[in-house]
Every structure is written in C-alpha cells, then in structure tokens.
Amino acid sequence: MALNSLINVEITCEDDYKLAATVYRPAVELKGAVLIGPATGIKRQFYSQFAIYLAQHGFAVLTYDNRGIGDSLYGKVKHNDASLQCWGLLDQPAAITELMSLFPNTRYHLVGHSAGGQLFGLAHNAHKLSSIFNYACSSGRLLNMAMRDQLKSHFFMNLFIPFSNLVLGFTPSQWVGMGEPLPKRVASQWRTWCNGEGYVKTAFNKTINQHYFDELTTPSLWVNASDDFIANHKNVKEMIAVSPKLPAQTLTLNPRDYGLAEIGHMKFFSRKSSALWQIPLDWLFKNSKA
User: Fold this and answer.
1) Are 118 and 223 in contact (CB under 8 A)?
2) What is the spatial distance between Cα 210 and Cα 216, in angstroms, rounded to a whole number?
C-alpha cells in the first residue's frame, strides 16, 4: 500500500498564530482522519514514520508543531510566550478544525503522545472526535514516581527549569535529551503541574476556568509501557479520572513481549517499535466503522 501525498500546510489559530503542519494522504479508500498530538517539545517529524504507516492503511494524518516548537517558532525561543494550556486551548482545536476541513464527512481520531493526549479536554471541539488513542499520557505527578525517578525528575523540574529560565529566558530541554528548547511559560507550567495534582487538574479554577474534560464521552484507549517511569499506573489512572464520563480502556506494554529492549516514554513511535503499531491501527479501524 502506498502513500498518495505528503504536503506541508499552515494552520491558523483563533489568535492568528500560525502553526506548521504536515498532511499525509492515503492512496487507498479513506477510512478516517487522525490528528497526532505531540509530546512536550517534540517536533512533528518525530511521528513521520508512524503517520506514513497509518496513511498506508487508509487513514489521513495531520501532524503539527505546537507554538514555540520546531517550525512553529518565530524568532528566538526566549521571546515566545507559549504555555502548555494555550497548546490545548488554541493549538489543538485549530488542528482539529484543519483536519475536518481537509477531510470532510469522515470520522476523526486523536492519537495523543504525552502532553498531546493530556490536553484534549481544553479543546472546544474535542467532542468532534470519534475516538482517542493515548500513549504515555498521564498526570505526570512527581509524587507518584519511584524514589529514584523522583530524584532525577526533581532535578529537571525544580532546579534545571527555574535556573535556566532565570539565566537564559527559556529551558534548553535538548541539553538533557528532552526534545526542543521550551518557551519559559511552557516549562514553568509543566513544572507547576507535575509538582501539584498533575496535568491540567492543577490549573483548574486558577489559570484554567473553562474546560470540557468532565463532559466528553469519547471512547478512549490509554496505553503505557512497563518501563515508563513517568506514565506509570498511578499517573495514568489520575489522568483518566480527570474525565469521569470518558469510556476508558487501558493497556500496559512489556517491551520483552514484542522483542524490544525498551519502549519507555518515547520509543512507541520509533520505527524500531513498528511491531506495536498494529495496536492503534486496530483501535482506529474499530472506531471508524459506521
């Protein structure tokens, strides 16, 4: 099965911010359309092989860079005022709208990776989604991690982020293998949420006064890996609980069961982990039937 085309497009958000995006069109009959929500500081190209795989099986795919990341960064990162919550309030809903405009009259799905699947309830149009497949999506709460993992997480969150923001005006996450440089407000909010009750919930009635987490009833599958210390069972359970009406299934992957040395927080979308991709594909097929 072949890919029909791959084109770069521009998404315009409600506040007129422009996001860089890529569209993958299948050469076969369209089964549905998928938005890939990226992890914190991860560029859209990271998901290209996975997107091609889905397109080869009949699903159109839209990948995008959040504001302040990759090709959606204009000027210097230290001057960008992006935050985690505006990724959910402005960027993801604009991407959903773009997906629907490009591929009308089909079913729409979110494949979320970490933050990309944790912010969906901030999108005013999330109810348009027919399903949600989330990988490594959790509250990210530091207190739920094993002590050895808490130590390195506290170093990054509570030393590296505030010090680099103070000195540099942004967080150079790439120095510690954590994706692209992060705008100051993104990193600061990330730190606050993970030190508190976890993703999004920490900000309710503080910086976030309206959301849709408690309204959505979209079928969802939450997948994590046994070797992911961030999206561990407690943190995944906490994130699911933010959406009490959401029908949620869970699945934990053991890398040894698939002949893999590791999966962790990031490697599900690696070409080396393509043996895992049948799982989201089956989910998408199941939730694309009329």
Assistant:
1) no
2) 13
